[in-house]
């Protein structure tokens, strides 16, 4: 069906249209490819998905502004909508499934692609979109009784909310298939949180549904600590509750260490506070799933982003140091901060920089 | 009591034993007069030379009763067998075991059925569990919907299947009474020959034993359960019939809860449809987009509202409105519905915002609601590539306009709120959007969102302006999404008020070239 060269060409053409912000050219490109016989699933997954991935990469590398990234994503969404609009045949003979993003998750694009692929494969799909509050999701499940819920999340900081969504779906007897980068390499956090299955991409998700998912035993209702016994030490709860205080204290400590920071404008100060808050959020997530990888991966990624913007990793280490001062009585938290610091230290620094 | 010699011959037999074994007498071979479990036990005992201490006493049936045999060796090598009647204890144990098993099943049934509030799923589970635990196949019939019933069939070990069909329940004795729940009928056995074909699941050819039992609901009939076994020798005992009734009571309670929920959810959805915010779309060359997040995650509406009245002709004005009723939740939402309806009726007068506000104020003052409201009216038209806006604020936050170059301006309209005072004064201000410009209407849920990295700060207008400056040149849809997202992330998991935004945008003519944005932030937003 698919001609690799053609797919690559279409991808290149779509990328040019999206990067230029030209919605009409973008839609024209995929429609032409469809008319030339490129199959629709391949357009969604081998053309549009990689282009969207590149949009994120361009932003991370500081070649796209926030606005450009938003505009590019909006165009990709319209391209998907245009494809769906073009479709004629009836779908839904395979059965009914629900696709939703975890509460708080705004990256709806991957879930949207999964929903479209499943529709193409004959499923009746209820697509609930970005940041679905769990009470809405459960009411929807009671109403429609789907064969499965496909739960998408991109950012690991949503894992605690993903956990409560997973247990709630299973408590009403609907199996959960988790997907998205939030669930970690190989879907390790999906398993830790008790999801019935994890899929690396849309094709794997479709194959898993076609193979059939058993319904969870409805009597096996779980409490959070049944899945994650380490939560009993309360370190996660303490960190989440004292987030504001931790950020304030770290900010003060950093000003003591780098007097230059005292001259920061309110906006600069707020950016720094937001950065520290992110570190605390990922720290809390690592405490929740009891896995340093969540935290170290975030820190090394951040170090890379900082480098792209010519900020040295030194400021990151100072922030971790200040947090360690405050976490002395919490062994698990302290261990994670130490792991984080050594991950940042071993991160290769390609060029010296003089600015703080 | 029997005394037996090492060769297995009876030496003595007492009166009680003689009553039990009427044919037995002195000199008979044990093998001929007692069941093999006892004669074999005797042989084993003799081989062990009379040592009975290490093994459990043998037990078995004699005629209809159960006995335990205790052996003791006598001095001359004979063995004395004491037969103790154990029938009562055995029966009691068996009954206890069955009772425990059934209690377990009932507990499982309850927790399984109560886990879902979907009536179809509930019927599937009830049928499957009935087939699993009480019969070979089961059928759950819903109460009639018109003349149609939903029938859910299950054969043991197979999946449940569901059909909706017209049936005549009078064809099955006791079924129509069971379905009506009145007069009360016990679970009853019926003649398998009276079973119509539609009551048999696929692959289940002929029924031998059949029970029909009502599913009692919460004051309303929840349907009926039919249990089927293939052969007549596997009939239903009295205990099984009682168990079937207990099962039916639980299944009925769960099913009627599910039906009640479904009915209520349908009613809520119908009433809610009128209150839900409308979907905005590009109309007559102008982009419209809006976002809404109610204060409570389990509700879909609240005290913030917006509405959209597209013009019939491109030369006419489209009216959009965004506002906020004091209070939140359903009660506030009901008043927003009233305001939206009133405004809809006042649409022909929209050329004069002041008059619309006067009439709306009068309507609110004369209603029984004591709440007041603030709102912004925006009349939008497009001429020669430029979008003309007439904006009037009635006690509401003034709209912001973001120019394609990144400048953010406040539109200086102001006025008094609606529904509180007999007279409303308001100033209408006109502004024009060039291609790439966007006008944002928003509620105080955005600026008063409390949170941020330190946890206790307002999002505030300065942050909103900065966020808008970054949205320069974006489509209206993306502006709304970004503002809603930033405010939501600002509050995080914390408490917030209703948050509503509405954007009116003049589409840019050429491809997008982003102005005024330099990538500003090194760390990931929790979403971009």
Can you describe this structure?
Chain A is α/β, with parallel strands linked by helices and about 350 residues long. Chain A folds into 3 domains: about 1-90, Methionine synthase domain (Methyltransferase, Methionine Synthase (B12-binding Domains), Chain A, domain 1, Orthogonal Bundle); about 90-225, 3-Layer(aba) Sandwich (Rossmann fold); about 230-345, Phycocyanins (Globin-like), CATH 1.10.490. Chain A is flat and about 65 Å long. Chain A has helices spanning about 5-20, 25-35, 40-60, 65-85, 110-120, 135-145, 160-170, 190, 200-210, 225, 235-240, 245-255, 265-290, 290-310, 315-325, 330-345; strands at about 95-100, 125-130, 150, 175-180, 195-200. In chain A, helix 6 (about 135-145) packs parallel to helix 7. In chain A, strand 4, helix 8 and strand 5 form a beta-alpha-beta unit. Chain B is an alpha+beta fold. Helices cover about 30% and strands about 25% of the residues of chain B. In chain B, helix 5 runs antiparallel to helix 7 (about 240-275). The radius of gyration of chain B is 41 Å and the shape is elongated. Chains A and B meet through helix 4, helix 6, helix 12, helix 13 and helix 14 of A and helix 4, helix 5, helix 7 and helix 12 of B.
Classify the fold: give the CATH topology of the largest domain in chain B.
Phosphatase 2c, domain 1
| Poorly predicted sequence stretches spanning 5 or more consecutive residues of chain B | 511-528
Looking across the biggest beta sheet of chain B, what order are the strands in? Answer: 8-7-6-11-10-9
Structural class of chain B: alpha+beta
* Global outline of chain B: elongated
- Main pleated sheet of chain A: 5 strands, parallel
The CATH class label of the largest domain in chain B is Alpha Beta
> What is the share of helical residues of chain B?
25-40%
- Beta percentage of chain A is 5-15%
Q: Treating each run of at least 4 consecutive H or I residues as one helix, how many helices of chain A? A: 16
Strand composition percent of chain B: 25-35%
**Total beta strand runs of chain A:** 5
Distance between the termini of chain A: 54 Å
Domains of chain B, number? 3
What integer value in Å does the Rg of chain B equal? Answer: 41 Å
Specify the CATH homologous superfamily of the largest domain in chain A.
Cobalamin-binding domain
GO biological process, one term (chain A): homocysteine metabolic process
Pfam families (chain A): B12-binding, B12-binding_2
Keywords (chain A): Cobalt, Metal-binding
InterPro entries (chain A): Cbl-bd_cap, Cobalamin-bd, Cobalamin-bd_sf, Met_Synthase/Corrinoid, Meth_synthase_dom
